[in-house]
Amino acid sequence: MKRRAFLKTLPAITALASAASAWGQGSPPGALPKPGQTASATVNEQAALRIKAKDTLTALEMNRGEAVDFELSSGDIVRIELVATSARILRTTLKELKVEEHRGRTDYTFDCVLRVNGREHRLEREVSTQRSFYEPWEIDGVRLWFDAVQDIFAFLLEEHGECRPRKHARFALQDAALRICPETLHPWCPLPEGGLKIIDCYRGEDCWLGAYNGASAHGGLDINHAPGTPLWTPFDIDDHFYFNSLNMGHNNNRWRGIHRWPNGAEWIIQAHHMTELTVDEHAPLRKGVQFAKGAGVLSGSVDHSHFVFKVHDYGETIHLDPWILFWQMYRDAEETRPA
Ligand SMILES: [Zn+2]
């Protein structure tokens, strides 16, 4: 991790970051409710955090009872309060929850109640069905990705990559008039025609937070690839390197690339299981360059690439569903497609 680079961006966000941590102290995460049980809290009117929409999306974790005033580029302020969260299993093949079984399968749903400018909205997600590849909500001028709730860890483990939110729920917010970032994205890999298919996520379960072997939240998005499938840079990469590799003695090749946006946000992306890098490490890369031959190393019973997306901003690093990047890539590919 490029610690020094992170520190450089800190002074500009110190005020907001310390406000954020002070804001978080009033309502520490409580005990997880039982699956299916909805936990809710009363919102403290005085405690809203103020965040201005940037030209890149804002990753945000919230506890129940917390509120954020999200300022759109128009200057309008949208108050978003997290009222309640819950999660429940739709179906499982496990004999015992939280105990992995080879080819075990658990599908689940999670939801939250948000009060947006005083009106309540119930948002529901489903994993790992085809609905894992969801459309974001648009409420009062805010595009809203409902990424995760802590409640899913009442029946899942975090043993397959970091993915558990540190607060009750995790979102990505953006002004609905803006893209997820100011530039168009190049496909990270060949985009399957018609969108991502859950059936092509390893054995049909390893989307973001999907239950690997029925029990472990999957800390990435798998897309099945023949070994050698090209991986391209979706945006300019300022620095990149293997943080794990067969050459260094690890069991897998794992690559990390970093892009620093002028607004101070850093996007960190990872790809795992590639057979080889096709460019030198640490040299900056332009958008759209092939950097690796994907899949083939430790890729289990179905060759695949494993993708990870993190946003470092306001002094913290927050994991998000790589699907958000792919959602934008599909839109961008559609717009640049010759008529
Ligand atoms: Zn994976």
Distance between the ends: 42 Å
Q: Report the structural category.
A: mainly beta
Number of helices: 3
SSE order, as H and E?
HHEEEEEEEEEEEEEEEEEEEEEEH
Mean pLDDT over the full residue set: 90
Largest sheet: 6 strands, mixed
Q: Beta-strand level of the residues, as a percent range?
A: 35-45%
Task: Walk me through this protein's architecture.
The chain has 339 residues and is mostly beta strands. It folds into two domains: 3-175, no CATH class; 198-336, Glucose Permease (Domain IIA), CATH 2.70.70.10. Helix content is 11%, strand content 39%. It has three helices and 22 strands. The protein has helices spanning 3-8, 10-25, 323-336, and strands at 39-40, 49-52, 58-62, 67-71, 77-92, 106-116, 119-127, 137-139, 142-149, 157-160, 169-175, 211-212, 216-218, 221-224, 229-232, 239-244, 254-260, 266-272, 274-277, 290-296, 304-313, 316-320. The strands form five sheets. Strands 1, 2, 4, 5, 6 and 7 form a six-stranded mixed β-sheet that branches. Strands 14, 16, 17, 18, 21 and 22 form a six-stranded antiparallel β-sheet that branches. The longest helix has 16 residues, at 10-25. It is globular, with a radius of gyration of 20 Å. Bound molecules: zinc ion. Zinc ion binds next to loops.
